[in-house]
Design goal:
509 residues; Immunoglobulin-like; 9 helices; elongated
């Protein structure tokens, strides 16, 4: 929106206060004001300022829709799981902890919107301690996945508020009787001793067990850890946890598919344990879906493929690698694409998205993308990776052992004919570090070379017709482990026209 353009690149705007957020949100229609009330916890300060810089309802809705669209964990299934989970939490916060004032719930609602329902929720009633100090009713929430406790106290007419630390001395340097103050502005002068948390911690049978010093210190670190958690991860959803993710890699290559269209290969490589999910399952089934949208947001291609992995009871630590290829044809243009791998029965998934340009490969000499391969061999009956006389098994991860050769496949189109009737071309390739350092002043002035070791090679060839298939084995020589770029250039002998393609790969130890 407008305010974003006025902020210098790399600069951070001052975070809006609670009052500023409420005042700006109040200019919006009620439904949008309610939506902003929940989104304020998941947006960065810059994003929140950007959203609220424009009170035009339609533009705000478009901004919110775009923000959620970019964070859809599985963009191929037609449902934005992140937005659905967030909106369910907001409704739950309002229904369970609602109050009339902004934002529509007390502090418990904020924590619920950020992290969902706690694994443990303990309540205590109000009490009076000598000499007449009122100890308000409390709640203690525990999130084991983060190992943090969140404490609330009852302010009476203003709902529950979080306890917050107002002393800046580190925990290890504080005496055990150090006192804190409540966060509530309504009870700002009421001190609180954290030692009273003993009454909230009971064993599995409900019996009270006082905490030892070490237990108390661990508890205190967990209490203060909540505020670090908010800084690091303002909101977390069930699908954010590593256990829900399938290790996967995706690569996309474009080839000439005929007059006016490209053949697009979407290659996916993922890993799964062969241990069965339950004693009766004999396989694990995965569905890979690839979807392409045009610039107007219309789905122009959707293809799904299922893969099954046989399981074994005694192969607990074994991994299976699955490589599949989804092929479709698209006319030249720019597309948004998404790929998702979903395991049936477990909810685990992998997801990737990117923007893809399909080339016009009918305008003079041209070449396809570079397909980094696992193997390139003679075609086999029934193989889904056959390319004419060759079987090209892709390696979407782009990972190879240092010193090993890298099989590369590509196609050349519309090679020109010389006056002698031949169709000659030259292939040159270079391997260079992805993040090559700049040459030093000494090497630029005196001709020395401090460039990292590179690999260069080339050869001349004659095409049997206007098109040709090329596969090379790019040697990595003595290149150390790291990230590299393979650049291949093809020069047409008849027209001297030169076309270049690149692909990135990683050398392992």
């Amino acid at each position: 929106m407008v305010s974003g353009a006025a902020t210098p690149a790399g600069a951070h705007r001052t975070a809006l206060s609670h009052k500023e957020v409420r005042d700006r949100a109040s200019l919006l229609p009620p439904d949008l004001m309610h939506e902003v009330a929940g989104m304020q916890y998941v947006l960065t300060p810059d994003e929140l300022d950007d959203l609220l810089s424009d009170s035009h309802a339609a533009r705000c809705r478009a901004w919110i829709d775009s923000w959620w669209d970019r964070r859809d964990p599985i963009a191929t299934d037609g449902e934005n799981e992140a937005r659905v989970e967030h909106e369910a939490r907001v409704l739950n916060a309002q229904a369970t902890f609602g109050r009339g004032a902004w934002p529509g719930w007390d502090d418990r609602g904020e924590v619920l919107v950020r992290y969902g329902a706690p694994a443990m929720r303990s309540k205590t009633g109000a009490d009076v301690l000598p000499p007449g100090v009122l100890i308000p009713a409390e709640e203690l929430w525990y999130y084991p996945k983060f190992n943090v406790y969140v404490r609330f106290h009852d302010t009476g007419y203003n709902g529950y508020a979080q306890y917050q630390e107002s002393v800046q001395i580190s925990l290890d340097e504080r005496p055990r009787n150090d006192r804190r103050e409540m966060a509530s502005k309504h009870l700002r002068d009421l001190p609180m001793d954290y030692m009273d948390v003993d009454i909230d911690l009971t064993d599995a049978m409900g019996a009270y067990r006082p905490m030892a010093d070490a237990q108390y210190d661990r508890f205190m670190r967990s209490v203060h850890g909540y505020y670090d958690l908010v800084d690091e991860m303002p909101a977390v959803y069930p699908f954010d946890f590593p256990a829900m993710h399938i290790p996967a890699f995706v690569s996309v290559q474009r080839f000439r598919g005929g007059d006016g269209v490209d053949r697009v290969d979407v290659n996916t490589e993922f890993h799964s344990t062969v241990r069965p999910m339950n004693v009766r399952s004999q396989s694990r089934r995965f569905v890979t879906t690839s979807v392409f949208w045009n610039q107007k947001g219309k789905v122009v291609a959707r293809v799904a493929r299922a893969d099954s992995i046989g399981t074994g009871m005694f192969a607990v630590d074994s991994l299976a690698t699955v490589i599949n290829q989804i092929t479709m044809t698209l006319p030249p243009g720019t597309y948004r694409m998404a790929v998702a791998v979903q395991e049936e029965g477990s909810g685990r998934f992998a997801s990737a998205r990117r923007e893809i340009d399909c080339y016009n490969m009918d305008n003079g000499v041209s070449m396809s993308d570079l397909a980094l391969a696992r193997t390139i061999d003679m075609a086999r009956d029934g193989s889904p990776f056959n390319r004419g006389p060759l079987e090209v098994v892709p390696r979407p991860s782009g990972q190879y052992r240092a010193g090993h050769s890298i099989p590369v496949y590509f196609e050349i189109y519309h090679v020109g004919m010389s006056d002698h009737g031949g169709r000659a071309y030259r292939v040159e390739y270079t391997i260079k570090p992805r993040n090559a350092p700049h040459r030093s002043l000494w090497s630029r002035m005196f001709g020395g070379s401090d460039e990292p070791l590179q690999v260069r090679s080339g050869f001349d060839a004659v095409a049997p017709g206007p098109d040709d298939v090329v596969h090379v084995s790019a040697g990595t020589g003595n290149l150390p482990p790291g990230d590299y770029v393979l650049e291949v250039a093809v020069t047409d002998g008849a027209t001297s026209r030169r076309v270049v393609r690149e692909a990135s790969f990683h050398l392992l130890k």
